[in-house]
Design brief:
The chain is an alpha/beta fold and 245 residues long. The chain is built from eleven helices and nine strands. It has a six-stranded parallel beta sheet with strand order 3-2-1-7-8-9, sandwiched between helices. α1 packs across α11 (233-244), α6 (82-92) runs parallel beside α11 and α9 (168-180) runs parallel beside α10. Bound molecules: nicotinamide-adenine-dinucleotide and zinc ion.
């Protein structure tokens, strides 16, 4: 089926409201933040399995902080793109109930989205794994580069590393949103990371229409996706909002 007729089918589903979104790193690549699949980017220098696990942080926090500093640098100059903006517009028009994001880049909030469930946390706060002290982002910024706790150990941003659990509140809010939506937009995620990748399945089992937007098919595409819109998130989401008006 052509992209155009699929776009109008998707727009129809969105017009009914009660829409949720699940976003992944692919929604932010057009903002200059590489996903795990991008070539020649951050993740070639810092292999996620070596730098983004909780074991790695316990073992050698100074090493993991080299990756975190490179990531922070990218994030500080990144701006929301058309896909982030389109989701904010859908919420403003009362069609979108909320976003479950796997990203830690805070670009949905920067685009104006209000109901954002940060499934993998963010670096808006920091914790010391050794003495449990908590710091706001501002407090952590005053504690050196990389920031150290009063106890002398490295602080960890409240992002979920591989091997860590999902924050319970995010988990239960995401579960509720997935169960109650009538359509779910799945944007720029490979749906390989558990348990975030369960959200489209929960939504689908509850009868929601699954609309997937990705440059390439994923394993969802041939299983539960109802409408697959192949293309870049910025272009497709922009076209979707246009098709609504
Ligand atoms: P992923 O890297 O596994 O997959 C990204 C997906 O997005 C791929 O399927 C790719 O085809 C697609 N994609 C890439 N560019 C796109 C574009 N312009 N338009 C549409 N689709 C595009 O990402 P994931 O599924 O989110 O899982 C990786 C994990 O890494 C997540 O847990 C996330 O927390 C973390 N991560 C976050 C960021 C961020 O905060 N921006 C960046 C990298 C990784
Ligand atoms: Zn401490």
């Amino acid at each position: 089926m052509s992209l155009k007729s699929d776009l109008s089918k998707a727009a129809l589903a969105l017009k009914r409201g009660r829409v949720a979104a699940l976003t992944g790193a692919g929604i932010s690549t057009e903002s200059g933040i590489p996903d795990f699949r991008s070539r020649g980017g951050l993740w070639e220098r810092f292999a996620p399995e070596e730098y983004a696990t909780i074991e790695a942080f316990y073992r050698d926090p100074a090493k993991v902080w080299r990756m975190l500093e490179a990531m922070e640098k990218l994030l500080s100059s990144a701006n929301p793109n058309d896909a982030h903006k389109a989701l904010a517009t859908l919420e403003e028009r009362k069609l979108l109930d909320g976003i479950i994001t796997q990203n830690v880049d805070m670009l949905h909030q920067a685009a104006g989205s209000r109901r954002v469930i940060e499934f993998h946390g963010s670096s808006s706060a920091y914790t010391c794994l050794w003495c449990d002290a908590r710091y706001s982002r501002e407090e952590a910024e005053g504690r050196g580069n990389p920031p150290l706790c009063r106890c002398g150990r490295h602080l960890k941003p409240d992002v979920v590393f591989f091997g860590e659990g999902i924050p319970p509140e995010a988990m239960s809010m995401a579960d509720q949103l997935a169960k109650s939506c009538k359509a779910m937009l799945v944007v720029g995620t490979s749906a390989e990371v558990y348990p975030a990748n369960q959200m489209p399945h929960i939504a689908s089992r509850s009868g929601a229409t699954i609309i997937e937007i990705n440059l390439e098919p994923t394993h969802l595409t041939s299983s539960i996706t109802d409408i697959f819109l192949q293309g870049s998130a910025g272009e497709v989401m922009g076209a979707l909002v246009e098709a609504l008006s």
